[in-house]
Amino acid sequence: GEDVEQSLFLSVREGDSSVINCTYTDSSSTYLYWYKQEPGAGLQLLTYIFSNMDMKQDQRLTVLLNKKDKHLSLRIADTQTGDSAIYFCAENYGGATNKLIFGTGTLLAVQP
Amino acid sequence: DADVTQTPRNRITKTGKRIMLECSQTKGHDRMYWYRQDPGLGLRLIYYSFDVKDINKGEISDGYSVSRQAQAKFSLSLESAIPNQTALYFCATSETGTGAGQPQHFGDGTRLSIL
Lengths: 112, 115
What we know:
heterodimer, A: 112 residues, mainly beta, 5-stranded antiparallel beta sheet, B: 115 residues, 7-stranded mixed beta sheet, 4-stranded antiparallel beta sheet, 11 strands, 56% strand, globular
């Protein structure tokens, strides 16, 4: 069945770049998403990319999609302590039904 | 005010009790979803609804039921709670139709503990 995998933990120093990786299995996914979850809060949509794109940039965020390898990454430039959170990637696997499969989440810890 | 509101935010109850978690939204979206989050497992879909007359099972619907009382309201019930239903529960909404990926928008979650 469909599966989305992420590493569980990433630690970076403030000011460095963070790269969070994700692999997925459904090659028919049309959209892939990145969500951020801060402690005690719900999931906040950060950005998403359509499957016919290779890259999308939004301020400090850069999303790279390698469709051949089914690999998605989120790069956060100039990482700040406020970026500390759990980051989830998700793929739209249900077509018009818009069902999402979520990865397990990557905890990003930013050291001052 | 939050666009997607879940009540209660926290609940502790005993095995065998009936529990209802409520979700209301002001986004005007037709589609609503219930997920549970467990450590190391990400979010898993319990039920989803595309309009008031539409209910669909998700990945892990056993032990749960839902009711779509109105476009803006979607409740999740545990008829007889068991400890392995202890989790963080999220409601989400999305628009219908094609377009910009129809991203899902989440409430702040309900933390449910079953003793």
